[in-house]
Amino acid sequence: MGQVSRRLEELGLTLPPLLPKLANYVLAKTVGELVFVSGHGPLNPDGSVKYRGRLGADFTVDDGKEAARLVTMNILSALQAELGDLDRIREFVKLLVMVQSAPDFQEQHVVAEGASDLLTDVFGPECGSHARSAVGMMSLPFGIAVEIEAVVRIAP
Question: What is the pTM of this model?
Fold first, then answer.
């Protein structure tokens, strides 16, 4: 068992099953030392949407943070499938957190903390800390509340 697997276990977390892609793209693509992870949503292990709606109308900020955390777990499953071992990850470089928002909702950055906190809890501050953008969207695919994409640097 690798270091990341042990840390997930310590935190009481289990990677969800790899979710199927929903269109003509790949879930993650490795180019040299970088892995580009496609946008993932807050899907349950059976592929159903857990959070469908707008932050600030249908969901609270805390709900949004939980949605971002779930999305991040799905991203980790995609990385596990792409890399074979999460211990190959050297650092999370960048996250783009897209939040389907009510017109007056301005807490996208707080919603994004659900993803950022999980990554630093699992990978530590040196590897898990990252650059980040958190933006409000009028609409996201399938009505999902949060979509996240990532760029990760791996060991050669």
Answer: 0.97
